[in-house]
Amino acid sequence: MHSKAQRFEHVELKVKDLSKALHFYKDALGLVEIGKEDGVTYLGCGYDKNYDLAVKEGGTGISHFAVRVDDEEELEYFYRKITNLGVKVTRHNGTEPGQVRAIRFPLPSGIMMEFVLVADNDYANPARPAYPRNIAAAPLNIDHINLVTKDVKKETDFFSEILNFKVSDVVDPEMNGNYMMSFMRFRGYHHDVASTITKNQDGTLHHLAWTMSNFEHIKVACDVITQFGVDVEFGPGRHPIGPNLYAYYMEPGGNRFEFVAEQVYLDPSSPTKKWRSMQDTLESWSRLRKPPGSFIQST
Ligand SMILES: [Fe+2]
Ligand SMILES: [Fe+2]
């Protein structure tokens, strides 16, 4: 089957304080407001007409997240496959800005996932944005999402067996399938979705990542968010998995974000890499470098 380079598309997050969060998203990150409906504000990086982040006040964590599919045929293929498991799948036709058609269903973790067809599937030109952009940290696009769950193996198996994702990397300390983390790709991009172990019963999100041009762009963005009173929690550095450049921070809405650059594309047949310890996966430049204790918290 010929398939396009579809990847992570958008996320709807809950935030603690909407006005604080929107101030940061618009003035620090430079996201553009695309629309507002039923208390949900839709924001985009501005390069295309699709929204990247939707936010609603009340708590923290994920309301739903979406991966783009090729066409109606692929959407129906997943509708049948997931429905056949006895999982309730709902249809959404144009209920969000830029959405043509979508299906929504719960993952084994309970987190709501969506496959979506979008109206604007053009490629973007930074000098010809769909909307005028603020000059700020200005991420290029939404990049990937890192979910939390009590059973990473179960979540990973669902992604690989039912949703046809490939597993790029797993952290499997005993090499017995008791995963602590997994990194999964829908097409070639190293990870669109990752899953991380948690003890937080109510947690859904470890972090949401934004694509940046390069290390210099991450540096400028770290300077910008710091001017807005937001500390960089961990990084910048380079992860051994990905092996992307990273910098993490807790944003004023109460969720963890990451700036990412240089994440690789993999061959469809690239084998799954297995890692024995979380510590081995954190930092390429120093095996001793550890994140702060706060880094294990999810929202
Ligand atoms: Fe959606
Ligand atoms: Fe990440």
Fold and architecture overview:
This protein is an alpha/beta fold. It has 2 domains: 8-118, 2,3-Dihydroxybiphenyl 1,2-Dioxygenase, domain 1 (Roll); 141-296, 2,3-Dihydroxybiphenyl 1,2-Dioxygenase, domain 1 (Roll), CATH 3.10.180. The chain contains 4 helices and 17 strands. The chain has a 9-stranded mixed β-sheet. Strand 7 (99-106) and strand 8 (112-118) form a beta hairpin. The chain is globular and about 50 Å long. The termini are far apart. It binds fe (ii) ion (2 copies). One fe (ii) ion (FE2) binds next to strand 5 and strand 8.
What's the number of helices? 4
- Using the coordinates shown, work out and report the CATH topology of the largest domain: 2,3-Dihydroxybiphenyl 1,2-Dioxygenase, domain 1
Overall mean confidence score, pLDDT: 93
Q: Structural class given helices, strands, pairing?
A: alpha/beta
Rg on CA atoms, Å? 18 Å
According to CATH, the homologous superfamily of the largest domain is 2,3-Dihydroxybiphenyl 1,2-Dioxygenase, domain 1
Number of strands: 17
Bound molecules: fe (ii) ion
Q: What CATH architecture of the largest domain would you give?
A: Roll
- The order of strands across the largest sheet is 14-15-16-13-9-12-11-10-17
Helix content: 10-25%
- Measured between the Cα atoms of the first and last residue, the distance is 38 Å
Characterize the overall form: globular
Low-confidence stretches: none
Query: How is the biggest beta sheet arranged?
Result: 9 strands, mixed
How much of the polypeptide forms β-strand, as a percent range? 25-35%
Total tally of structural domains: 2
